[in-house]
Amino acid sequence: MRVPAPIRAVLFDYGNVLVGWSPRKLYARLIADPSRLDYFLDHVCPMSWHMLHDEGQAMADTIPARQAEFPEFAAEIAAWKTGFAEMITGEITGSSQLVKELAAAQIPQYVLTNMPSEMVETCFSPFDFPRHFKDIIVSGDEKTAKPLKPIFDISLKRMGGLSAEEVFFTDDSPANIAAAASYGFVTHLFEGPEGLRQAMQDAGLPV
């Protein structure tokens, strides 16, 4: 990992870096048959469909359209909105501990998340550690999502005009990390809190 400048801020992904998120957690309860469950998550409500919400489309629009296409799954599709909170698997405590340590060291911290605007309260309010973030950049609000460059540019502006080389960014998506690295960010592909701590230490952060 190349560190071209002193790190002045940390930018976190949220889902599956700080808090676990898995639609399978909800749908394993709703769809008992494993093959039907896999079909639903792979074809009826795949991540490519959910990306519409991350890009700013309202579930009130996308869910009826999907129900019309897959009427046999109408109730399950509706649960994508009504049961969204059940997709949250819990705080990743090793990661949130790093947030607390960085806050104690007065390192500015931010979140850049691909997330529907309508689910921000659901995803953030159960936890205490988000109070340490100076700002949260939500793709659904900005109508653009990772890995596209515009949302990274928006993030830098919201971070007070820092350069990408001054920001340590971590995400669990290889595509997002590759894109951020190409834009100049100091990056770490999140695979667990221990590796993240080591990468932060290597970047000179006080954790």
What does the model show?
- This protein is α/β, with parallel strands linked by helices and 207 residues long.
- It folds into 2 domains: 9-18 and 92-202, Rossmann fold (3-Layer(aba) Sandwich); 22-87.
- Helices cover 47% and strands 14% of the residues.
- The chain has 11 helices and 7 strands.
- The protein has helices at residues 23-30, 34-44, 47-54, 59-69, 74-82, 93-104, 120-124, 139-142, 149-158, 174-182, 193-202; strands at 9-12, 19-21, 88-91, 109-113, 135-138, 167-171, 186-189.
- The strands form 2 sheets. The chain has a 5-stranded parallel beta sheet with strand order 5-4-1-6-7, sandwiched between helices.
- Strand 4 (109-113), helix 7 (120-124) and strand 5 (135-138) form a beta-alpha-beta unit.
- Helix 4 packs antiparallel against helix 5 (74-82) and helix 6 packs parallel to helix 11 (193-202).
- The chain is elongated.
- The two termini are 17 Å apart.
- The model has no long low-confidence stretch (mean pLDDT 97).
Index terms:
single chain; 207 residues; alpha/beta; Rossmann fold; 2 domains; two-stranded antiparallel ribbon; 14% strand
- State the distance separating the first and last CA atoms: 17 Å
Quaternary class: single chain
Strand ordering within the main sheet: 5-4-1-6-7
Overall form: elongated
Number of strands: 7
What portion of residues is helical? 40-55%
If you compute it from the alpha carbons, what radius of gyration comes out, rounded to the nearest whole angstrom?
A: 18 Å
CATH architectural name of the largest domain: 3-Layer(aba) Sandwich
Series of H and E elements:
EEHHHHHEHEHEHHEHEH
Share of residues in strands:
5-15%
Count of structural domains? 2
CATH topology of the largest domain: Rossmann fold
Low-confidence stretches: none
CATH secondary-structure class of the largest domain: Alpha Beta
Mean pLDDT figure: 97
Q: Can you summarize the main beta sheet?
A: 5 strands, parallel
Individual helix count:
11
Assign the CATH superfamily of the largest domain: HAD superfamily/HAD-like
